[in-house]
Amino acid sequence: MEIAARTTFLFLFVNLILARRAIVSGAATLNVGVILDLQSLVGKMARTSILMAMEDFYVVHRNYTTKIVLHIRDSNADSVQAASEAVDLLENYNVRVIIGPQKSSEATFVSDLGNKSQVPVISFTATSPTLSSGFVPYFLRATLSDVAQVNCIAALIKGYGWREVVPIYEDTDYGRGIIPYLVDALQEFGASIPYRSAIPVSASRDQIEQELYKLMTMQTRVYIVHMSSSIASTLFTKAKELGMMSEMYAWIVTDGITNIINSLNSSILDAMNGALGVKFYVPKSKELDDFAERWNKRFKQDYPNDSLSQLGTFGLWGYDTIWALAQAAEKVSMVDDISHKQWHRRNSTCFGTMGASAIGPKLLDEILHIKFRGLSGDFDLENRQLQPSIFQIINVVGQGSEEIGFWTAKHGIIRQLDQNGSETTNVNSMPDLSPVIWPGELHVVPKGWQIPTYGKKFRVGVRTSGYPEFMRVERDPITNATTATGYAIDVFEEVLKRLPYAVPYEYVALDNADSRSYNDFVYQVHLGVYDAAIGDITIRYNRTSYADFTLPYTESGVAMIVPVKDDTSKNAWVFLKPLTTDLWFGSIAFFIYTGVVIWLLERRINNAELTGSFFRQLGIAIYFSFFADRERVDSILSRLVVIVWVFVLLVITSSYTANLSSILTVQQLQPTETDVHELIKKGEYVGYHNGSYVGDLLEELGFDRRKIRAYETSDDFADALSRGSKMGGIAAVIHEVPYIKIFLSKHCKGYTMVGPIYKSEGFGFAFPKRSPMVNDFSRKILSITEGDAIIQIEKKWIGDQHACQNDGSIASPSSLNFKSFSGLFLVTGVASTLALLIALVMFLYKNKHRIRNSISRVQTQGGYGSEHADRQNQERELDYIQAQSMQVIVPNDPEDGTCQQEIEISTEFTSPGSEVQPSPVFASRETPDNSLFRIHP
């Protein structure tokens, strides 16, 4: 022990002396270990880039006093070998930084060694998210985590409308690490991963082929490939041989392959034709172009036997890593570079003997603060890894790749980079990408799924319905094959004819169908017993939790079947029903008003019909209102009023006659019940089909469970309805509209449908959750229901819907109200009033002089003085005496044989001294022009 202690002290002392001499001479060194898989393409690419970075950096920075010394080791793609090389570099070469290792599985153990010895471990190729842990603070990632690209991949899946994808990944830390994050990103918009294809690194070509055969038996045709280039080469080669690089297939590769896509063998690129890829976007620059040219020459010198490769992103990250490390080393003093060990033993592999680097924390801190613009873009490890910014989307075409667009976290998928950030992706449309050449050299976007043409057939679940018209299932006793017929089957097979692809299928009958509900039937789809379930399956909310439904192919709703009654027992006042009360009273009021107007107009010109008392004349005028077309009116204004009124009367009488006829004929058949709530109030019995969800619905509506009766067939319903609720039957059947149509086609006479009284979604086909076939089936069902096909299917299985006169809701003819004729009454009222006003104006105009004299006389009476009063009284008395002795004899025409008439004209005056009140009294007939007037005093 004493000898070992002295040896350790001597070793430390010598290292300290050498370090001080190096500082004095101006040439300090920093030992850096590099662990790569030098047999792989990425390892070779990284080695060339690292060596060129060393040369380029110190040519530019000649004045730097600290230089790094590289110790490159080969891991041979083995994690144990990588760990062994790391221990050797730490123990025997006193390295203070380790670059690499190349694979994520190798970096997991080496990062623990770096954490223990306080030596920073920087990897620019290990991308597994599992390495981003706070427990290994000395691990830095000079690349992107695989998590950064999952959102870009999810955006592509979402943009093209694919609902299911299958990841194909190598069964390592690198392959498995991305899967949880990919699942979360896809679930955000409803996509799912029905299967995960994990391929071991040691898988043979036959094993990969078997896995691809397995994928071909599934419906999903969208694959995300996440693996190293060596396994991917075999995978795509086999996929092309099996015909999987053709139409209906879509392939997306992650950046692990895309970053070196242009360096792959031409035969591999040919097999990958049509695939999409995502990779880190490297901004173009003149420095990058110059370096790429020099790199190609250097790589050819380093590996003359290899095919010419092109510089990839991993090479750029390796180049920038050396520049960052060299800058950080210059800022750390090498004087403090001492490893503190418990003891030292040469070539020891015991981890307990590993010391902690004195400059490790300082060196780590300096690396984290280094920021510069490198060949790959902005280099910044402040968050212990590079930060994602922009991803490039490429399309493998021919012997290379073509850029078709970009993805950014802010703007989504865009065709061209927009510095202003004004372009965004429309989530409801195709991605904004340049035209893509898909596998098979097609420009049509693959559907993303396909029914396999081999293997097991599409299993379609069927069951016999309570209404065989919708579905009848039979089993052939000889072949044991299941056959199905009916309305639902015809719709299903019509959909299959219209699909753009073939669907090999077979009908599978539900076991013990008589004792199982439709909920159980649909749940078999969720359990995977059926690939789809068809029939008279109502689309209900509770069933959507474990199955997806197509659009309905039948009418929706729940309605009532009720008997109809012959309403022939009309009461004595049925003739009043065509018009409402307000219309009756309004019509009477306008009758009277029109008659009064005619009387006033005709009385003015002394119509010969208007004689006798006041009430007699008014009655005759109102009579004109009823029979204006038969009675003579003399006034022009009266005739105008009569013309308008006759038109109004004609419209009212015609409408009355039509409505009364409708009441006496159409309304003879009336449903016995029209409101489901009235059934509840009356406590009537109702029926429903046994096993239907309508039974639970009736209880929810408020029916007493004891008042609900279940029946099996249409004949059972008809028998129960005929007996009625009081005779042990039912008052109404509550049923779904499609079933009611079948019932009425058999029992048309005496029954009708009332409603719908409750909303439902109709019948549809059930598929597993997120099945890609739902959308295709729904579109074809829509095309069937909008055309003539559904009508022909209904006629075949249900019959002519128009043959039953009782089918559909019956609406009673409604009484006519005053509002319906308000316009007519307004016209006749205005006409009558206007005629009356015109007559008044004419009368005032003709008698204006008399009216004016009367007004003047009244005014004059108030202006005489008391001195003229006696004189006026005397004149009045004299006039009175003369008038008593005046007589006028008017003889008739001498040639006329009639007798003469004497007309006395007397004028009464008040006695002298009283107020003057002239009262002329006329009792005269119309006098001919040749009449003679004789006055006898």
From TrEMBL:
UniProt subunit comment: May form heteromers.
Q: Where is the signal peptide, in residue numbers? A: 1-19
Annotated Ionotropic glutamate receptor C-terminal domain ranges read 457-800
| SMART domains hit by this protein | PBPe
Q: Where in the cell is it found?
A: Membrane
Q: How does it sit in the membrane?
A: Multi-pass membrane protein
Q: Which organism is it from?
A: Urochloa decumbens
Cited Pfam families: ANF_receptor, Lig_chan, Lig_chan-Glu_bd
Q: What job does this protein perform? A: Glutamate-gated receptor that probably acts as non-selective cation channel.
Keywords, A to Z, come to:
Disulfide bond, Glycoprotein, Ion channel, Ion transport, Ligand-gated ion channel, Membrane, Receptor, Signal, Transmembrane, Transmembrane helix, Transport
Which BP terms from GO are recorded? Answer: monoatomic ion transmembrane transport
Task: Name the family the entry cites.
Answer: Belongs to the glutamate-gated ion channel (TC 1.A.10.1) family.
Q: Where are the transmembrane segments?
A: 583-601, 640-658, 821-845
GO CC terms? membrane
Where along the chain is composition biased (Polar residues)?
A: 906-917
Q: Where is this region: Disordered?
A: 906-937
Q: Does the keyword Ion transport apply?
A: yes
- What protein name does the entry list? Glutamate receptor
Disulfide pairs here are C748-C804
Name the source's superkingdom: Eukaryota
